Amino acid sequence: MIDKSKNLPAVLVVEDEPLIRMEAVDMIEDAGFKVYEAGSADVAIELIGKHDDIGILFTDIDMPGSMDGLKLAAYVKDRWPPVAIVIASGKVDFTVMKVPEGSTFFPKPYPTDKIIKALGDIAQKLA
């Protein structure tokens, strides 16, 4: 269970499918986190540069634009090392992906309880 009385890091949700993004945002907000949302890596990079309260990147892998979720995760880890990375995908085999060290992976459809627990664990480590 997440202690909502603590100052939780904001979560940046990056998902190109609007309905899936909306569900993810609702799930994470319901757990007590402030959430920013982006439909592409380009918008995500713009948001993370503007909001220093973002402590967790929650991204899909398959996205249109200049980079996919894996490249976005690597970019964020390189540019903003303290930001925790959570990656979700329904199409990619995690065992063959090159993800930033310390990243967490979840298959789609989202296992809500496991994602919320992981976000809570990350928030405790960042506190």
Molecular structure report:
By secondary structure, the chain is an alpha/beta fold. The protein has one domain (10-126): Rossmann fold (3-Layer(aba) Sandwich), CATH 3.40.50. Helices cover 39% and strands 20% of the residues. It is built from four helices and five strands, in the order E-H-E-H-E-H-E-E-H. It has helices at residues 18-30, 41-50, 69-79, 112-126; strands at 10-14, 35-38, 54-60, 84-89, 104-107. Helix 3 (69-79) links the parallel strand 3 (54-60) and strand 4. The protein starts with 9 loop residues before the first strand and ends with a helix. The mean pLDDT is 89.
Task: Reconstruct the topology from this structure.
Elements: E1 10-14, H1 18-30, E2 35-38, H2 41-50, E3 54-60, H3 69-79, E4 84-89, E5 104-107, H4 112-126
Parallel strand pairs: 1-2, 1-3, 3-4, 4-5
Helix content: 25-40%
The CATH homologous superfamily name equals: Response regulator
Query: Which outline best applies?
Result: globular
Number of helices: 4
Cross-sheet strand order for the largest sheet: 2-1-3-4-5
Predict the CATH topology: Rossmann fold
Rg of Cα set: 13 Å
The oligomeric state of the chains shown is: single chain
| Biggest sheet descriptor | 5 strands, parallel
**In terms of structural class, how would the helical and strand content be classed?**
alpha/beta
**Number of structurally distinct domains:** 1
Distance between the termini: 15 Å
Helices and strands, in order, run as EHEHEHEEH
Mean pLDDT: 89
The CATH class is Alpha Beta
CATH-derived architecture: 3-Layer(aba) Sandwich
| Tally of strands | 5
SS strand fraction: 15-25%
**Poorly predicted segments:** none
